[in-house]
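Write out this protein's structure.
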Amino acid sequence: MPNDARDLIAPEFAEFDRAAEGGFILSDAVIRRPGDAPAADAPICPECGATARLVPSATVYGRSYGRDLWVCGRFPACDTYVGTHPDGRPLGTLAGPALRAARNLAHATFDPLWRDGWMRREAAYRWLSEAMGLPREDTHIALFDADQCADVVVLAKMKRLQLAEEGTGGLS
């Protein structure tokens, strides 16, 4: 059994300090684990207002996918959740089934711009940021509402048509 996080990570990351709430600090992010007490900065469910809790991905998906999820405190009655970064920060905002479907469609339409080589990933997000009139740091589909996701679908389809007509399938 490892003594602490230092035993679970590569030696070059071993300079952790214990955080007051029992996590570990790398840079300024507290690493949270399932079962930890809700953090003061735990997400709030946009559907019902309950404080989210951190759970293993198996709680939602039936098997582990390696990362934890923030789920509504009323889950499964309130079916909202969001994935996490390795340090436990949410990847975006909690989303119910309809918003998750809208975000999945937005990704399925937008991601081929960079995955299929039409643009580099950063250039695609920079273009999307400008097209939507958002700061680049706020241009993440995991932060978008359903209307913004619908805009992404339309904009990405138009951009793919434009690039195809121009014959500019090379990376930009």
